[in-house]
């Protein structure tokens, strides 16, 4: 990939990622419905996921945010964090959650198209999930 070979310390580099396609292996009902790319950026740590979804029913920003807030306080507590703070990548370094839902960035277009952002520390958050798995197996 010639893009990866160029000035990584000073460039944003679009590249492939298997993460979106891997979801279909774990959740077969989503196979072929997701795809994605990665943007390699010159930051020490901290990542962001940008998801655009076409929904069957009309949505509002308030309804989307309320659903994520409820999930973060309920079944996904400890894995999903909900924030309305105007965070940037350095704010989430060392955060143990797998996803910090950025409520201020939620968008709804044409009633049924939803765009959300989720931040994560791709090293620490992942390590915390490995510990969770070991504790469940113990």
CATH architecture of the largest domain: 2-Layer Sandwich
Number of helices: 3
Helix content: 25-40%
Instruction: State the domain count.
Output: 2
CATH topology of the largest domain: Dihydrodipicolinate Reductase, domain 2
In percent terms, what proportion of residues is strand? 15-25%
CATH class of the largest domain: Alpha Beta
Derived from helix and strand composition plus strand pairing, the structural class reads alpha+beta
Radius of gyration, in Å, reads 16 Å
CATH homolog superfamily of the largest domain: Dihydrodipicolinate Reductase, domain 2
Query: What is the string of helix and strand elements?
Result: EHEEHEEEEH
**Sequence stretches where pLDDT stays below 50 over 5 or more residues:** none
Give the overall pLDDT as a whole number.
91
Shape: globular
Number of strands: 7
Distance between the termini: 42 Å
Q: Major β-sheet, in short? A: 5 strands, mixed
């Amino acid at each position: 990939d010639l893009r990866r070979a160029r000035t990584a310390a000073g460039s944003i580099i679009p590249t492939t990622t298997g993460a979106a396609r891997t979801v279909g292996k774990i959740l077969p009902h989503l196979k072929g419905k997701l795809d994605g790319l990665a943007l390699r950026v010159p930051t020490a740590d901290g990542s962001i996921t940008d998801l655009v979804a076409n929904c069957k029913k009309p949505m509002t920003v308030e309804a989307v945010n309320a659903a994520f807030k409820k999930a973060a306080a309920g079944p996904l507590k400890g894995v999903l964090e909900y924030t309305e703070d105007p965070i940037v990548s350095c704010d989430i370094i060392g955060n143990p959650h797998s996803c910090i839902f950025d409520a201020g960035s939620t968008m709804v277009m044409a009633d049924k198209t939803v765009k959300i952002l989720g931040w994560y520390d791709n090293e620490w958050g992942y390590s915390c999930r490995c510990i969770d798995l070991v504790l469940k197996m113990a």
